Please model this.
Amino acid sequence: MPLRRRIGLAAAAAVGVAVVMAAAVCYLVVRDQLRSNLDGSLRAEAAEVLHSHNLTFNDLPYVPPSSGGPAPYAQVVASGSKILFASGRLALPITPATLSAAGGHGGMFLSDVTVGGSDLREITIPVTVNEQFGQVPAQVPAALQLARPLGGIDSILSNLRLVLLLLCALGIALAAALGRFAARRVLSPLAEVADTAQQIGETDDLSLRLRIHADDEVGQLATNFNSMLARLESSRAELDESVRAQRQLVADASHELRTPVTSLRTNVEVLLAGGVLDDEDRQRLLADMVEQSEELSALVGDLIELARGDEPHGEVDDVRLDRVVEESIARARRNAPEITFASQLDPVLVEGVPERLERAVNNLLDNASRHSPPGGTVEVTVDDAGVRVRDHGTGIDPAELPLVFDRFFRGANSRGRQGSGLGLAIVRQVTEQHGGRATAANAANGGAVFTLELPTVRVGDDLPEADLAADGPEPVTAQSGLDRDRHLF
Model:
């Protein structure tokens, strides 16, 4: 059953119960009030009779119309069920309670009686009969019965029951109709949610949004649904971009791998041809094969590094950036002994993965050493802004500055040199994974400056010297005197 119909039926049932209860209470109150008025009239007439000391039934005490007037049915009963007097066309029934009152053993009481198909309300009171009643001795005890018809009250109650039943039926029907109308108004945003979800499922269009009709629970649902769609759309865009980047990486990698693989295969085929080669040519071919294998291995390693994307690469910890750079400088000096590396390393911390940061710094230093002239100097600085590496080479063509961090990009100054064109792309990826930014610029006095802007924590001046000189990238805790103000540039 649809939710709209269920809400309408529930509203009709709730209103129906309330209307029936109200009608029942109204009926009971009216009935009790009408019967109370009738009982009041009978008691008023009985009181007039009891206050009359010379009771004669030819002329009962007068009861004013404001008290209901005289009862249309009156009857005096003596002991032995003897009727001494009766007025009206109906003979009132004589019960044991009536005889008890006639014998002086009972008090006044009210009761409902039915005589000749007519419903009557009767009051019975003990009285004393005077000697005026023929042969009856003076002061004989008897019971006076006064009765009034209930037909008028029953007619009013019957009409009231009919009116209340009609009101109940109309109220329930109106509640059902209004319930369905209200449910349609209230549930229309939910229907819009369902329609939008169905349309998204059919068209795969995550740009659709719901209209916010009101700031209520349904409005909050629509707002949350729109937020969910926005997040899904963003995730879809990121996924599409990731897939596009992966496809582009595969395409670029296929192109870049083709050259060393082709050259390596050509050299192998020459060696397998078994032609006459002197030792010098053979050694040259073997050296070329070793160089091409190393180039191929480096290219595959860089491709694997880039293909990981945002995949976690170990546990994140507080890393002494200056120590990571210091180790990278020692490695660069071993690999490029003809280059002088001048460093100024301030003790700073960065939250990240040491191996990834070291890979990025190594790539920067390798790039700087390749573009420095023999005997040139590479300046390395570590401070609260991050890492800066400057070489004194020919610099970067201004038109190529926006492209230096792209995958497989090799500028005019890099062509002819060994390299895959992925080193700086790895630098940018690692920097962004650590919440920073990689930039490149030409220095004023020649050469290029590469900067890794990272969120760092400067080590406080009150840190013990033993901790500053400690080996290894062990993190320094706040209890050791860190200044926890982070700087992001």
User: Anything to note?
Assistant: Residues 317-487 form a domain with the Heat Shock Protein 90 fold (CATH 3.30.565.10). The chain has nine helices and 14 strands. Confidence is low (pLDDT under 50) at residues 461-489. Residues 217-272 form the longest helix (56 residues).
